[in-house]
Design a protein that fits this description.
The complex is a heterodimer. By secondary structure, chain A is an alpha+beta fold. Chain A is 25% helix and 17% strand. The N terminus of chain A is likely disordered. The chains are: A alpha+beta, B mainly beta. At the A-B interface, α2, α4 and α6 of A face α2, β2 and β11 of B.
Chain lengths: 427, 208
């Protein structure tokens, strides 16, 4: 994955765009439309798909300095290997009881067109406020399906396209779990995300109903010295597979999967509640011990406190008293598997208003905080599930974290020219 | 006469917004020149492209047909399912002025070109556009909810969202065949005044 450097370079650009927007929405809208055309014509998907190395300062800006649009068409969908944008909405849709292959196809026809327009900075069809789409802010729209979709179209269903095994730490709620279709909308402007989600759902009409929707954010100023941190303060997403190189088969489905998923992927979305009130009681050393890393740098506890987060951990190192320096229950030790279990994490924090207690009609507690764990991989049962099983068995972080939602979706291949997303599902 | 003048004034703000939309639409990477195959007459699910295109002298950029699929019933007549509107940016690809006077479609018994004006009671009503839509040479003509539009009437069924509807325009430069995507849209209800006829409500929800 890309490092923080391109984000640092891009950050000021993003803000510049917002400022320039004050000069007149109309002018901005017109210019961005033209900019989108340029990026589409030059096939910027290629640069985006290179995992950020081709990004640099232009990752978020076009030649005019405007917030950049991304090309939609290609072998693979966008929104997976690009540097995660700052704001995201994840949503699952249920198909109605009478859904069939034709109605699914019509929905994917609509969303294909919507995604292509939104990613180029245009409003969708029937959008009376296309100005809200005119700052693309690096928006990506990524679409997946649950097992009901291939079942309806008669396509083979991979074994992993099902709920994950039950783990003893789970307290899953229906309101955050499952779904027949999945949409991930990410951008560096929350306004852009909100408008895109509204358009996608409005245009869906009666073809589907929202099952759940999760809103997340990352560190807007992520860059050198400013990592993505979850709301426990932990540096997140430290170790990632080399998805553009030798380990790309861990991310993308190739000949090992059904033909309709060639070029696609799989995503696991887990909503992890974080008990901030209990975490407050824990001293800093215990917090670091729970994860096996320095909170400040994210480096393993066997490295100096100012080492890079990617420093190799010495899992055998012991204290003078004979205990492992990296605790036997430390999250990093328990998460570590063999080299076949790598996943591409794209996590977002959530920090919503506390839930309302129905008994009193008032908010309960001080916080409603956690992590939207989003991980892409080729086979969740082979990659995510063994890791999660180890963590469910033993992980000090389980004291403060509770999975309350879980869903698995097949991420469709990209739509090439003239195709809709999921084209191969329909023969 | 004074009626239409007033209506124009009321829409001047909206009109400038439409210009903005138009600019963005034109910047759409030349998608208007893409040819969408019109494989199935009437309705089709094959058209992935949103841009309705033609083998004739006029294209419809970012065109769409309003479906009332999924629109909750409002008060009154709860949606007349026998008619709906076509919107987008009519674009004259020739170097001569073109007038569009009507059309035909496998899904509609009648196709008319309409304008939306404010009547003496201050209510927005739509009515057949006398003289048709005039598109300047190499120019454009905006069709939008609450404004000028093409009306599909006497339909046997509301077209389904995610399909495309075939529409053949009758123009002064010959016919233009379009395949136009169908989309969900909650707005766009207007009162309809047939030429010389009495007001009928499309849905009972008047714009005021």
């Amino acid at each position: 994955m890309s490092t923080g450097s391109d984000r640092a370079a891009a950050g000021p650009g993003r803000r510049t765009v917002l400022l320039s927007g004050l000069g007149g929405i109309g002018a901005l809208a017109g210019a961005v439309g033209l900019g989108a055309c340029t990026s589409g014509a030059t096939g910027s998907t290629g640069a985006a798909a290179s995992g950020g190395s081709g990004g640099g300062a232009d990752a978020l800006r076009d030649a005019s300095g405007h917030a950049k649009a991304r090309a939609f068409r290609g072998e693979r969908q966008a929104g997976i290997i690009e540097t995660p944008q700052t704001y995201a909405v994840f949503l699952a849709v249920d198909l109605p009881a009478g859904a069939d292959a034709d109605s699914v196809r019509r929905l994917l026809t609509i969303w294909t067109d919507d995604a292509e327009k939104l990613m180029s900075g245009q409003g969708t069809l029937a959008d009376l406020e296309p100005e809200l789409a005119a700052v693309p802010a690096g928006i990506t729209v990524t679409v997946g399906v649950g097992r009901r979709v291939p079942e309806l179209t008669g396509a083979p269903v991979p074994g992993w396209l099902a709920p994950l095994p039950a783990y003893k730490i789970d307290k899953l709620q229906e309101r955050w779990s499952g779904g027949d279709l999945f949409v991930q909308v990410c951008a560096n402007s929350p306004t852009t995300v909100a408008h895109a989600v509204r358009r996608l759902l409005t245009n869906m009409g009666s073809l589907g109903k929202v099952r759940w929707q999760q809103r997340g954010f990352r560190e807007p100023f992520e860059g050198p010295g400013i990592p993505m941190r979850n709301l426990f303060g932990q540096v997140d997403g430290t170790v990632q597979p080399d998805v553009t190189g030798a380990e790309s088969a861990m991310l993308w489905i190739g000949s090992q999967g059904p033909a309709w998923l060639a070029g696609g992927s799989a995503v696991v979305v887990r909503r992890i509640a974080m008990d901030m009130d209990v975490w407050d009681r824990v001293d800093r050393e215990s917090r670091e011990n729970a994860i096996g890393r320095h909170l400040g740098s994210g480096a393993p506890l066997t490295s100096p406190a100012d080492a890079p987060s990617t420093a190799a951990a010495d899992l055998d190192a012991k204290t003078p008293l004979g205990f492992h320096v990296i605790d036997d229950g430390a999250h990093m030790r328990r998460a570590r598997g063999d080299n076949k279990e790598k996943i591409l994490r794209r996590p977002y924090s959530y920090d919503d208003a506390p839930e309302v207690d129905p008994a009193t009609g008032r908010m309960s507690g001080l916080s409603n905080t956690g992590l939207i764990f989003v991980a892409y991989q080729a086979d969740p049962l082979a990659q995510f599930a063994p890791m999660q099983a180890r963590l469910a068995e033993k992980d000090l972080l389980n004291l403060w974290t509770t999975p309350i939602g879980s869903a698995v979706f097949a991420i469709l291949p990209g739509a090439k020219d003239g195709e809709i997303l999921g084209q191969a599902l329909f023969g | 006469m004074s009626r239409s003048t007033r209506a124009l004034g009321a829409r001047s703000v909206a009109a400038s917004a439409a210009l903005l939309v138009l600019a963005a639409g034109l910047a759409g990477c030349g998608s208007s020149s893409t040819t969408t195959p019109a494989a199935t007459p009437g309705a089709s699910t094959s058209a992935a492209k949103s841009t309705a295109v033609t083998d004739g002298p006029v294209t419809l950029v970012n065109g769409w047909v309003r479906s009332k699929d999924g629109v909750p019933p409002t008060t009154g007549m709860a949606g007349d399912m026998s008619m709906t509107g076509v919107f987008g940016t009519l674009t004259n690809t020739t170097d001569k002025e073109i007038t569009i006077t009507g059309g035909s479609s496998p899904v509609a018994g009648l196709v008319e070109v309409h304008e939306t004006v404010k009547n003496d009671a201050g209510v927005m009503v739509m009515q057949p556009k006398a003289g048709g839509f005039v598109i300047p040479a190499k120019g454009t003509f905006e069709l939008k909810p609450g404004g000028n539009h093409i009306m599909l009437m006497k339909m046997s069924a509301m077209p389904k969202i995610g399909t495309s509807v075939e529409l053949t325009l009758t123009t002064s430069a010959g016919t233009a065949k379009l395949m136009i995507p169908v989309r969900n849209f909650a707005g766009g209800d207007e009162n309809y005044v047939p030429a010389g006829g009495a007001t009928t409500s499309m849905s009972g929800m008047n714009h005021s």
